[in-house]
Write a structure and sequence with these properties.
By secondary structure, this protein is α+β, with helices and mostly antiparallel strands. It has one domain. The chain is built from 5 helices and 8 strands, in the order H-H-E-E-E-E-H-E-E-H-E-E-H. It has a two-stranded parallel ribbon. Strands 3-4 form a two-stranded antiparallel ribbon. A hairpin with a 4-residue loop joins strand 5 and strand 6. The relative contact order is 0.15.
Length: 165
């Protein structure tokens, strides 16, 4: 039986290219998802419950919602109570996008079209409309940049913790 020295025959003799690529993609998805999870946690921890505004350039302070958004919390006596939370802090998610092979991390868009722009305005600054808390009327205003998404991603990428595991 003659030995075949063609490139295809030699290539097939070394390793299964498809299996190697599938294993590499599986590992990439796992690492990217871990990066998304760690970055999401860092983003949420950078948003602090404090009264008033944060300084421009610092992550925004978050405030407890008067309604709508609650989360269960265990009381000292073992019972569960519902506590008001910030929608900005609680509605941060991440997902792996198979089509673009990347991770999407960030807060979800809020209820109305005007409210949907709020996370972007906090991150980059700019002008927009907001609902006055006491009167409920819509007003125009200018936001100073208070980034929290990019610094969290940069810090997580620099730490490299998502690579260990």
């Amino acid at each position: 039986m003659p030995f075949d020295f063609s490139f295809e025959a030699l290539k097939d003799g070394f390793f299964d290219t498809r299996a190697v690529m599938d294993a590499a993609m599986k590992e990439y998805r796992k690492t990217a998802s871990r990066f998304g999870a760690f970055t999401r946690t860092r983003m949420k921890s950078s948003l602090r419950y404090k009264p008033g505004k944060s300084k421009p350039g610092q992550p925004p302070h978050v405030h407890r919602s008067r309604s709508k958004y609650t989360r269960p919390k265990k009381a000292t006596d073992g019972t569960t109570v519902r506590r008001q939370v910030s929608p900005l802090k609680e509605l941060i998610f991440f997902a792996y996008d198979r089509e673009s092979e990347s991770v999407v991390i960030g807060p979800v868009k809020f209820g109305t079209a005007a409210d949907a722009k709020v996370p972007g305005l906090l991150e980059k600054g700019g002008s927009g409309t907001f609902k006055a808390s006491r009167s409920g009327e819509r007003k125009r205003g200018v936001w100073s940049a208070r980034p929290f998404v990019k610094p969290a991603g940069d810090a997580e990428a620099e730490s490299g913790k998502y690579l260990k595991g």
